[in-house]
Specification:
single chain, about 350 residues, alpha/beta, Rossmann fold, 7-stranded parallel beta sheet, 6-stranded parallel beta sheet, 15 helices, 13 strands, globular
């Protein structure tokens, strides 16, 4: 029996690929054990228990960006997390650590180095700090996008949750789930697990104009945004959707952030898309959307430009251009490379190869 410790979390971009690998292990190697390491504050706190995997937690410790009281305490808190993980590795007889970036990954890499094989999985085009660190000691490095700059990287594609594919339903069934009319087009809007204020505010303010085109809106706001009033008929607003496959099944056009998982799922399902990349961080979200935009499969608008005025001058034209929307779908259907259903199986094969080489 092999015991895997999968470390990562925080946002869907880290959690969803992690869970895709966890599912792949459970489905194909049922005698093996999967442990997931995250924090108490990330999306993993909700999604991991829902999938019946064991979640082990450490404190959320962002890397300090400036000199202050937190930065002075950070090394001691970080080492405390590393010690806790070392105990987990020993007590649970972990055989391999697979990291996906995020707050839990860096201390897991530190705990496992020189003791266990480390496999780094980078789901974004541009690697984060934790995975840059982990790649120094990694037995193998898996990347979701060709061209991601990490040493000795192997391209595997984006690990996509299996339920995104297997739980697809007809538009009639999906629309009914959200109280919408399957005979009318549906704009699916989401911005991440915590929400995207720019997207939510703009869509809410422009909802009347969108609805006037004959389109409906399925708006998944995330946890930290509250609707300032009651939505009109044809505008379904919800903080969270557990059946994301249903939301995709309902959608004729998707408007979203461009996190790695979102882009991979939208592309694999051949959905026309408008991306509004998160404007903070190291710019990875704009890069994630690059292939789709370059190939005419999606349209990108900067966060600061996504305003009710942009909706009036640009989005409404897109909604009324069925030929353009079909062209975007067709471009996605021609997609190969990173956006397919085999990312998780490719990653597991790489992990198992690295683990077996370590044991031989």
């Amino acid at each position: 029996m092999t015991t895997y410790l999968l470390a990562g979390g925080g946002t869907a971009g880290h959690v969803n690929p992690l869970l895709a690998l966890a599912d792949e292990i459970r489905d194909n190697q049922p005698g093996d054990e999967v442990l997931i390491l995250g924090t108490n504050e990330g999306l993993e706190g909700k999604l991991v228990p829902e999938k019946n995997f064991e979640l082990l937690t450490i404190p959320k410790l962002p890397f300090p960006r400036k000199l202050n009281g937190y930065s002075l305490k950070f090394p001691f808190r970080f080492q405390s997390s590393v010690k806790k993980i070392k105990r987990i590795l020993k007590e649970r007889k972990v055989d391999v650590v697979v990291g996906f970036g995020g707050y839990a990954a860096a201390p897991a890499y530190m705990a496992a180095k020189k003791q266990l094989p480390i496999i780094v999985c980078e789901p974004n085009v541009l690697p984060g700090i934790a995975n840059k660190i982990g790649a120094k000691w990694a037995k193998a490095v898996a990347v979701a996008y060709e061209g991601t700059e990490l040493p000795n990287a192997t391209f595997v594609g984006v690990p996509i949750r299996k339920e995104i594919f297997k739980d697809q339903v007809s538009k009639t069934v999906a629309a009914k789930e959200f109280g919408l009319d399957s005979k009318k087009p549906i704009l699916l809007v989401f911005g991440g697990s915590l929400g995207a204020k720019t997207i939510n505010d703009t869509v809410w303010q422009a909802a009347e104009s969108i609805l006037a085109t004959g389109w409906q809106i399925l708006q998944i706001t995330g946890a930290k945004w509250d609707a300032p009033g009651t939505a009109a008929k044809g505008h379904h607003v919800t903080k969270y959707v557990s059946k994301m496959a249903y939301a995709y099944s309902a959608a004729d056009l998707v408007l979203s952030r461009s996190g790695a998982s979102s882009v991979a799922e939208i592309t694999a399902l051949a959905k026309a898309a408008v991306y509004v990349p998160l404007p903070i961080g190291n710019g990875e979200q704009e890069l994630n959307a690059g292939w789709a935009v370059d190939h005419g499969a999606a349209i990108l608008v900067k966060d600061e430009a996504f305003t009710p005025e942009w909706v009036e001058t640009s989005l409404l034209k897109i909604l009324q251009d069925s030929e353009l929307i079909q062209q975007m779908r067709d471009a996605h259907r021609r997609a190969t490379s990173a956006h397919n259903a085999s990312g998780a199986s490719n990653l597991l094969a790489l992990v198992n190869q690295a683990t077996s080489e370590n044991h031989s």
